[in-house]
Write a structure and sequence with these properties.
Blueprint lengths: L1 H20 L6 E10 L4 E10 L4 E7 L7 E6 L14 H17 L4 E5 L4 H13 L7 E5 L3 H6 L7 H5 L9 H6 L10 E5 L2 E6 L11 H13 L12 H4 L5 H8 L16 H15 L14 H6 L5 E5 L9 E2 L5 E2 L5 H9 L2 E4 L9 E4 L2 E5 L7 H11 L5 H9 L6 H4 L7 H12 E4 L8 H18 L5 H13 L4
Parallel strand pairs: 1-3, 4-5, 4-6, 13-15
Antiparallel strand pairs: 1-2, 6-14, 7-14, 8-9, 8-12, 10-11
Helix pairs in contact: 2-14, 9-10, 10-17, 17-18
């Protein structure tokens, strides 16, 4: 037994010694290949580290796909691609060309602004039709406050009331501008960008005794100017552009006699003593030859008579300064930059002055008012981006350029109005005229503004031009009745 144990023990010892003398297990490497797949190439990264056995792994990591910036699509009446210096809308066109790249750079990777040119006289019908057909619509449109009821009643725009009240600019917004963007039932459906009260642009030298304060005085001045071979005024007196003249000088005259168009319940109220008196005065001005024939030519040809100073005054919206150029003053001095600066230069030089529309005896100076505004359509794909855009345009860094450009009016924010940009003679006089006038909205409750404008202007044109012996009250009543039949 002892001998057997010794032999087993010896064999065990020998085995241990041989095991200790065996060649060491070679060190191996784990090879990890990571493939990063990008849009351009595959990049391999090899990492080596010692392990006890060989393992080869391939890990594929898919790179994140870049998220494209969201479009903010706008419909403006301006065309950034139109570089024609003679274009009527060159001010707005140039604004877009300069401002779109600024916006896109500031919001790079997040938003990109895409404007789709849409003529001003087609925009309303185009938007309403698109919304009703559930077709693609923009994220923002720029339009006048006259379209508030039309858009709202047709479900074409969004209610912005609660959102607007939460914005920091809301507290300093001009209340009268906000009112224009508010529906009869209290919904704020647009954000005002600029106020556009009407004024009278006057060649100062054509009225050496001062511009008339009353309509009677203007008749007297008309006779004096007629003897000099000149005209007291020129104005938008045609039925062009769906009767848009009803929004301009005609409405200034109506308000200056204490009248209006809207009955407060969505219908027209035209046959009133005030309206009859206003049309009678306007007809007298025309029949006596105190108004240029260009007033009735259409196509904005009435502006030509002011450009050459053959007419001493032109009542129109404040934004008219952008379009009436070049100018030749009564003295022969020329303003020939052929852009909006001509009118501004003439005002700064004192050749042109801004004045209120003469008032009827015992009445206040009449003024039509409106706003340039932004609406967010129903069905907009990027309403949040649209709100970002609105806040951006109303910022101190951007709003002055907008007001001077496409806004074409006065600032709606107090802090912007206080800036040096708006302390020039043009803006100072415009503020004074607005303050001295009773400014009214032409269509506070009427929905079909296009139809209403046409009804009014067709009647007025007939009474002052084609049939000046027609009974004014009867024609106004006829226009009123025919329009009101269409109101549901």
């Amino acid at each position: 037994m002892k001998a057997r144990f010794t032999l087993v023990a010896l064999l065990t010892i020998i085995a241990l010694v041989l095991g200790a003398c065996a060649a060491p297990t070679p060190q191996v490497v784990e090879k990890v290949v990571t493939q990063v797949v990008t849009q351009e190439k595959v990049v391999e990264k090899v990492v080596e580290k010692p392990v006890e056995k060989v393992v080869e792994k391939t890990v594929v990591v898919q790179a994140a796909t870049p998220v494209p910036p969201k479009k903010i699509v706008t419909w403006f009446q301006y065309d950034q691609n139109n570089v024609d210096p003679k274009s009527d809308e060159r001010v707005g066109n140039e604004y877009l060309r300069k401002t779109i790249p600024i916006f896109n750079k500031e919001f790079e990777g997040k938003y990109v602004w895409e404007n789709q040119f849409t003529p001003w006289d087609r925009l309303t019908a185009k938007l309403v039709a698109a919304v009703q057909a559930k077709a693609e619509v923009p994220d923002l449109i720029e339009a006048g406050g006259t379209e508030v009821n039309n858009f709202y009643k047709n479900g074409a725009v969004q209610d912005l009331t609660e959102w607007a009240k939460a914005q920091k600019w809301y507290a300093e917004m001009d209340p009268s501008a906000l009112k224009i963007c508010t529906t009869p039932d209290g919904k704020l459906v647009c954000i005002p960008m600029a106020n556009r009260p009407s004024q009278v642009f006057v060649w100062k030298d054509r009225y050496p005794n001062g511009f008339p304060k009353t309509t009677d005085e203007w008749l007297q001045e008309g006779e004096r100017l007629k003897k000099e071979g000149k005209y007291a005024m020129t104005f938008f007196g045609s039925t062009a552009f769906n009767g848009d003249g009803a929004n301009r000088a005609v409405f200034q005259a109506i308000v200056s006699f204490g009248g209006g168009y809207d009955d407060g319940n969505g219908k027209l109220k035209l046959n009133t003593p005030e309206n009859v008196a206003a049309v009678a005065w306007l007809r007298e001005m025309v029949q006596r030859g105190y108004v240029t024939e260009l007033s009735f030519a259409g196509g904005f040809q009435e502006e030509e008579a002011f450009k050459d100073a053959s007419a001493g005054a032109i009542p129109t919206g404040l934004f008219g300064y952008r379009y009436i150029n070049p100018l030749t003053a009564p003295s022969g001095k020329k303003y020939e930059k052929k852009n909006e600066e001509d009118m501004l230069d003439a005002i700064a030089a004192g050749d042109v002055i801004l004045q209120p529309f003469p008032a009827a005896p015992g009445k206040k100076h009449g003024c039509g008012t409106g706003v340039s505004a932004l609406f967010i359509p129903t069905g907009a794909r990027n309403p949040e981006g649209a709100k970002v855009f609105i806040n951006w345009v109303l910022s101190p860094a951007q709003n002055p350029a907008y007001v001077r450009g496409p806004g074409g009016g006065l600032p709606v924010l107090k802090s912007i109005a206080a800036l040096p940009d708006f302390q020039t003679p043009f803006y100072q006089q415009a503020y004074q005229v607005a303050s001295a006038s009773e400014c009214k909205v032409a269509w506070p409750t009427v929905v079909n503004v296009t139809g209403a404008k046409s009804a009014v202007m067709n009647a007025v044109y007939k009474l002052i031009k084609t049939d000046p012996k027609a009974d004014i009250a009867a024609e106004l009543q006829k226009a009123e009745d025919e329009f009101n039949k269409t109101v549901k």
